[in-house]
UniProtKB/TrEMBL annotation:
UniProt keyword annotations, A-Z: Coiled coil
GO cellular component: efflux pump complex
Matching NCBIfam families: RND_mfp
Gene3D superfamilies according to UniProt: 2.40.30.170, 2.40.420.20, 2.40.50.100, Helix hairpin bin
Protein name: Efflux RND transporter periplasmic adaptor subunit
Coiled coil: 159-186
Organism taxonomic ancestry: Bacteria, Bacillati, Bacillota, Clostridia, Halanaerobiales
Region (Disordered): 39-61
Length: 445
């Protein structure tokens, strides 16, 4: 029984070994088959690559024909550009400062409000200014009345008053004269001091001056005003008018108005605060147009002029605009060592904000009515430029002189003629006289 079990175990082991060996053989066969398939696919891929019309002409230089593409040469216009950066600023910006030191009664705006020229933005207390205006009106009325009296001649009442003043002054003079005579006699007899005598002498002198002045006033009243007096009164009226105008101006300054149309970009005042004549209370920015400040090098500054059109791109809003150069400074900035340029762009919807950065494309040169060809067609040999053209199914090598160039095009000055079939693809595999196969015809310039 024990021997039978051992034989059974041996049989199981043998079967397992056979299965393992068989599995290994099958796997090896699959891997070999995969390698053959990959090898065949690679060969097929290499064969398919060789079927392009413009295949590797380096491998066909020993062949009789080389495939190329050509384009007809034509006249055109070519411009060169330079890119600079700048910053958007308000086209115009005004900081308002109060002309008066007064308490703020009303603030009619807030930051972001759009205002029109003449709108009342801030109102100050006006009590003091109204009082001053009334006072100045009274002064003017009085001086005008005096002038009118002088022009019309003295009134009868004034003459009577002058006569009464003369009689009163005459009476005072007589009293002063009598006192002087009496005290002089006492002084001569040494009964009074010199100081007491001089007091009465001075009173006599004063009374005499007053009497003479009253006589002169009466004479002027009876004779009428002189030319000089009327001239003086006119000057007083003018001065009073100026005082009233100044008072009215201060009154008007209690209403602070917008000097330009724009947007309130800054507000530094609140109701109840006292204005300061040296500090800004608000700022108005004009944003319907934007001014861009940029700098250009000395290499290109003379290639630009005011009025030139430029393309401005703002990455912040992902949009481009046509703008114009407004001014070019003839003096370089001392720090940047470049020339300031101001560019203006219309901004009717105000989507361009002050402070946004702009990429500016400036045209630095342009030629028209010249032969313009792709740069890829130009080859170089021994420091000279040359091209190939189609000539009776052969490549003809021509030396050319070139002008200005852009990223992908270049101007031909000499060497080509309008209508020539210029080889633009495959030229690097050619030599003068190579037989060619024209497989593509590019668009006309």
């Amino acid at each position: 029984m024990l021997k039978s079990k051992k034989n059974l175990y041996k049989l199981i082991v043998v079967v397992i070994l056979i299965v393992v060996i068989a599995f290994a053989l099958v796997r090896c066969a699959d891997e070999q088959e995969n390698k053959e398939v990959l090898s065949q696919g690679s060969n097929n891929l290499e064969q398919s690559k060789g079927e392009s019309p413009l295949q590797d002409n380096a491998d066909k230089q020993n062949d009789s024909v080389i495939s190329v593409e050509a384009k007809e040469v034509a006249q055109g216009t070519l411009a060169t550009y330079v890119n600079i950066v700048g910053e958007a600023r308000p086209y115009r910006e005004v900081e308002l400062v109060s002309k008066l030191s007064e308490i703020v009664d009303k603030v009619n705006i807030q930051v972001g409000d759009i205002v029109d020229k003449g709108d009342i933005l801030v109102e100050l207390n006006r009590d003091d200014q109204e009082i001053t205006v009334k006072e100045k009106e009274g002064v003017l009325a009085a001086t005008e009345a005096d002038l009118q009296d002088a022009l019309n001649g003295s009134r009868k009442e004034k003459i009577l008053q002058c006569k009464a003043d003369v009689e009163s002054a005459k009476s005072d003079l007589e009293v002063a004269q009598n006192n002087y005579d009496r005290y002089k006699e006492l002084y001569d007899q040494k009964y009074i001091s010199k100081q007491t005598f001089e007091e009465y002498a001075n009173k006599l002198t004063s009374s005499r001056s007053s009497y003479e002045s009253k006589l002169q006033a009466l004479k002027m009243a009876e004779d009428g005003s002189t030319v000089e007096e009327i001239k003086s009164l006119r000057a007083q009226v003018t001065q009073a008018e100026a005082g009233l105008s100044s008072a009215k101006l201060d009154l008007s300054r209690t209403s602070i108005k917008a000097p330009i149309s724009g947007v309130i970009s800054n507000l530094n005042i609140e109701i109840g605060e006292m204005t300061n004549t040296s500090s800004s209370i608000l700022t108005i920015s004009q944003l319907n147009k934007i001014k861009i400040k940029a700098y250009v090098s000395q290499r290109i500054v003379n290639k630009l002029k005011a009025g030139d059109s430029v393309v401005v791109y703002f990455s912040a809003i992902d949009d481009s605009f046509i703008a114009k150069i407004q001014s070019i400074s003839p003096v370089a900035d001392e720090i940047k060592k470049s020339f300031p340029v101001e560019i203006v762009v219309a901004n009717p919807e105000q989507i361009i904000k002050a402070g946004m950065y702009a990429e500016i494309k400036l045209k630095t040169n342009q030629v028209a009515d010249h032969l313009v060809v792709p740069q890829s067609a130009i080859l170089e040999e021994n420091g000279e430029n040359y091209v190939y053209i189609v000539n009776n199914n052969k490549a003809k090598k021509l030396r050319v002189a070139t002008g200005i160039a852009s990223e992908d095009q270049i101007v031909i000055l000499t060497g080509l003629q309008e209508g020539d079939q210029l080889i633009i693809t495959g030229a690097e595999y050619l030599k003068d006289g190579s037989r060619i196969n024209l497989v593509g015809q590019g668009d006309k310039q």
